[in-house]
Design brief:
Layout (H helix, E strand, L loop, with lengths): L6 H24 L6 H14 L3 E2 L11 E5 L2 E3 L14 E10 L2 E10 L5 H20 L6 H14 L3 E2 L5 E3 L6 E5 L16 E4 L2 E3 L5 E3 L6 E3 L5 E3 L2 E6 L2 E4 L6
Antiparallel strand pairs: 1-4, 2-4, 3-12, 4-5, 6-10, 7-8, 7-9, 9-14, 10-13, 11-12, 14-15
Helix pairs in contact: 1-2, 3-4
The structure holds magnesium ion.
Magnesium ion binds next to loops.
């Protein structure tokens, strides 16, 4: 069931997203080669709590951390670990959820660690740009399938693939709500976009094939062919003035 949000609820989600943006902005200066992903997790939790938010991922289906840290061929849901040290040339997909005044916000970025190749930067750029292609298709009276198809076309036209086993989602008091927002699909299909819809749109883009698998830890999703993968996610509200990216900030 899709729960459409009132203007008051969207205002609260905007506040939640503001906290989340601040977390990303502060982490951007912190994240570097030599840090363990656990150190990033602990730093993120500290920032979230200092801003009076709660880490929405911690304990969600028993997830053991506040953020997901997915490196290189890891697509999503990487578990932070004191043993995994970031090194020059890695790419880090950092996915963070905040709960604030009982409303969730959810966003992800992929950051290069130090110098990475031009090809890797291009994967990150295409992933981010595919989100914005999806946004162009997100209009009052358009459909979820228009967004899905716009993302898929943009990515595949550039020689990459979109992950199919994991998808974007509605968001509100719960982290994951209806509807699902796949990164592939047919235009003209699915839910009609209407005022009050709030969704997390999150293209996951692989350099190789689209197939993924889950590691034995029960969480970490990796590409089946070992190719690198990038992720970009924003929480987006459809307001009476049109779509608004609640979590958008510089980079
Ligand atoms: Mg999400």
């Amino acid at each position: 069931m899709v729960s459409l949000k009132s203007e008051r609820e969207i205002a609260l989600m905007r506040e939640s997203a503001k906290v989340l943006k601040e977390v990303f902005i502060r982490l951007k200066d912190f994240v570097k080669a030599g840090l363990s992903t656990k150190e990033i997790d602990l730093k993120a939790e500290k920032i979230i709590r200092s801003l009076k938010g709660q880490p929405a991922f911690l304990g969600y289906y028993d997830f053991p951390a506040s953020v997901c840290t997915s490196i290189n061929e890891q697509v999503v849901h990487g578990i932070p670990s004191s043993k995994r040290i970031l090194k020059e040339g890695d790419i880090l997909s950092l996915d963070i959820g905040v709960r604030y005044k009982d409303y969730c916000s959810d966003a992800a970025r992929t950051w290069p660690i130090g110098q990475v190749s031009k090809e890797v930067l291009q994967l990150i750029d295409v992933t981010r740009a595919s989100f914005f292609e999806g946004m162009k298709a997100l209009q009052l009276k358009s459909r979820i399938g228009d967004v899905s198809s716009a993302i898929q076309k943009y990515v595949e036209n550039r020689g990459y693939t979109v992950v199919r086993d994991f998808v974007g989602h509605g968001i509100g008091r719960s982290l994951h709500e209806d509807p699902q927002v796949p990164n592939y699909g047919e235009p003209g299909r699915g839910l009609v976009i209407q005022e009050g819809l709030v969704v997390a749109i999150e293209p996951m883009v692989n350099r190789g094939k689209h197939r993924v698998k889950i590691l034995e830890d029960g969480w970490t999703v990796v590409t089946l062919d070992g190719s690198i993968s990038a992720h970009h996610e924003e929480t987006v509200a459809v307001t009476k003035n049109g779509p608004e990216i609640l979590t958008q900030f510089e980079n």
